[in-house]
Amino acid sequence: MRIDVVSLFPEFIAQSAAVGVVGRAQQRDLLDVHGWNPRDYAQGGYRRVDDRPFGGGPGMVMMIEPLQACLRAAREADARPAPVFYLSPQGAPLTQTRVRQLAAMPRFILLCGRYEGVDERVLAAEVDAEISIGDYVLSGGELAAAVVIDAVARLQDGALNDAESAVQDSFEGDGLLDCPHYTHPASHPLGEVPAVLRSGDHAAIARWRRMQALGRTWLRRPDLLDEAALSKADAQLLAQ
Ligand code: ADE
Q1: 23 within ligand 1 shell (Cβ under 6 A)
Q2: Counting CB atoms within 10 angstroms of each CB, which of 19, 56, 85, 151 has the fewest?
Q3: Which domain holds residue 204?
Q4: Can you spell out the DSSP letters for 62-130?
């Protein structure tokens, strides 16, 4: 899949997309991330991309013309249709369900705002949806774009080395939080690895992990249990 990112800091996007799972997904040709700088499409010697807000008030607003020209160039770089998503705290909260939808698209464009935001007319004319990564305010959309790209990249077939691990993650599959994980040494001043994990009894290990996932979700994020895919076996485990 292809993701084009319109940002005043395309180097931030390029760097964050060059490492880890996202970098590997790009090397494996599962994902193609391209940065586009609206400043390259701005007019005049100063290559101005922002201006003062009508009605007064603090901060600057990103102007229509450079953004529109930049979006057009990004769109035309590939023949496949590309919906545009604007990263903003006003958007719909990003969930794993939304990430799965995005990961199944052949391509999309992420628009990152800076300053006070983007001229509303660009949003109305060019943007298909707004995405928020949480109820807090970042100084720009770039970190949020990097979050979207990471979450989407790891769902591409072949991006993860252990194909199972995406399914076992928190939220993937059943909508529960993840169970705890341990590695060597089994015995350490910080604590012992639970005996069941060393028992070799795979059914008992699976039951223990499921119990932990259910218990943690109940304690930490009970809101998730309403939507989680719980089975009769889960009810039996909880009744034990
Ligand atoms: N830009 C600024 N804050 C943001 C947020 N919380 N989510 C997405 N984009 C943003």
Answers
A1: no
A2: 56
A3: 170-239
A4: E-HHHHHHHHHHHHHTSSS---EEEEEEEEEEP-HHHHHHHHTSSEEEEEE-BTTEE-HHHHHHH-SEE
